[in-house]
Design a protein that fits this description.
This protein is mainly alpha-helical. It contains 18 helices and 7 strands. Among the domains are: 19-104, Cytochrome b5-like heme/steroid binding domain (Flavocytochrome B2, Chain A, domain 1); 135-202 and 244-316, no CATH class. It is a multi-pass membrane protein.
């Protein structure tokens, strides 16, 4: 049996010995500096490599001691390429008597979801046009150079999800250009947040999107914890009211603005910082000529203010009203379905949300082109029906209203626990 914490070498992984492991042994390696994961029944020691992971060190750490096969498949369009990078990290495999899934996951559901993904790949719904593919390259460049800031947001989102495809170097560079020069943000910062969100949505301490900085309490668990501990940074029983003044108007122009620069400087993301500065230089060189410095600053903040409203409502309508809890070690399908819901399809909803009204499909298949979500949706719904997994779909108005209703309910839970002596 392989011993815990042994240093891997470049050939066989465990000082010349290829080991077999039980889940109990794998699950001992979950701490920073000592992390193992399982992918396709193979055991990898990623303790040191996490710092070089293109998707960030925390996303792998969130799967330490677990089977990461489904997440590995979801995030990497070119699996063969990534497997080559993983070979030096291989230290063994699961014992033959061990199940492929950990934590009593439904093996049949996991297998059927794998088959669904293969079917969607077979009918070309998973086809990813990576940057650098002939005439598509030229078309993308034309769109990039003509796009406005709001459209640039979609481009940087999609290039971020394609950062590990076969021509990832070009996608990586374009992602930095779009989010840095066209948006004034940081590719490293975005990847750090967004990949974690997709890997463990609505999971406390793993999804940064549910870190509310003590301004809000969300879900059913956190409000009670805060109430029992008598934590009252704000009057949470009124959070559904002050949300309109704190959430949508301030997220991008205040919180994200500060966090982006803080993250770049703290982690030494100097290339990202250079791209970001180029955005501000370009912006002020262009607009101060027409409006002067004062009104150029006003325009900048007004655009961020409006963008922030759209961003908060569209992203949170599919997540905040859903289940928010600590890690439950669910399979990929079940974990994503309890944390996400869809908004019904219509020409307006598709346009307004950029096809992210199909948030379920986006979370299940993060590298799938967004215009294919509606085609994948019936297949996903059928699989959910087979296993009794709830597939939620709402109206746009209902989803917006549910944000407020869920905040009000969470606030009531907090107040009850806070006043209960």
């Amino acid at each position: 049996m392989g011993g815990g914490g042994q240093q891997t070498d470049r050939i066989t992984g465990t000082n010349g010995r290829f080991g077999t492991y039980t889940w109990e042994e794998v699950q001992k390696h979950t701490k920073s500096g000592d992390q193992w994961i399982v992918v396709e029944r193979k055991v990898y020691n990623v303790s040191q490599w996490v710092k070089r992971h293109p998707g960030g060190l925390r996303i792998i750490g969130h799967y330490a001691g677990e089977d990461a096969t489904e997440a590995f498949t979801a995030f990497h369009p070119d699996l063969q390429l990534v497997r080559k990078y993983m070979k030096p990290l291989l230290i063994g495999e699961l014992e033959a008597s061990e199940p492929s899934q950990d934590c009593q996951k439904n093996a049949a559901l996991v297998e059927d979801f794998r088959a669904l993904r293969e079917h969607l790949e077979a009918i070309a719904l998973m086809l990813v046009w990576c940057f650098g593919t002939g005439w598509i390259n030229t078309a993308i460049v034309a769109v990039l150079m003509a796009t406005a800031q709001s459209q640039a947001g979609w481009l940087q989102h999609d290039f971020g999800h394609l950062s590990v495809c076969k021509t990832s170097r070009w996608n990586h560079l374009v992602h930095k250009f779009v989010i840095g020069h066209l948006k004034g943000a940081s590719a490293g910062w975005w990847n750090h947040r967004h990949f974690q969100h997709h890997a463990k949505p609505n999971v406390f301490k793993k999804d940064p999107d549910v870190n509310m900085l003590n301004a809000f309490v969300v879900g059913k668990v956190q409000p009670v914890e805060y109430g029992v501990k008598k934590i009252k940074h704000l009057p949470y029983n009124h959070q559904h009211k002050y949300f309109f003044f704190v959430g949508p108007p301030l997220l991008i122009p205040v919180y994200f603005q500060f966090q982006i620069f803080h993250n770049m400087i703290l982690h030494g993301l100097w290339v990202d910082l250079a791209w970001c500065i180029s955005y501000y230089v370009r912006y002020f060189l262009c607009y101060t000529q027409f409006y002067g410095v004062f009104w150029a600053v006003i325009l900048f903040n007004f655009v961020r203010f409006m963008e922030s409203h759209w961003f908060v409502w569209v992203t949170q309508m599919s997540h905040i009203p859903m289940n928010i809890d600590y890690e439950k070690h669910q399979d990929w399908l079940s974990m994503q379905l309890v944390a996400t819901c869809n908004i019904e399809q219509s020409p307006f909803n598709d346009w307004f949300s950029g096809h992210l009204n199909f948030q379920i499909e986006h979370h299940l298949f993060p590298t799938m082109p967004r215009h294919n979500y509606w085609r994948a949706a019936p297949h996903v719904r059928a699989l959910c029906d087979k296993y009794g997994v709830k597939y939620q779909e709402k109206t746009l108005y209902g989803a917006f209203a549910d944000i407020i209703r869920s905040l009000e309910k969470s606030g009531e839970l907090w107040l009850d626990a806070y006043l209960n002596k």
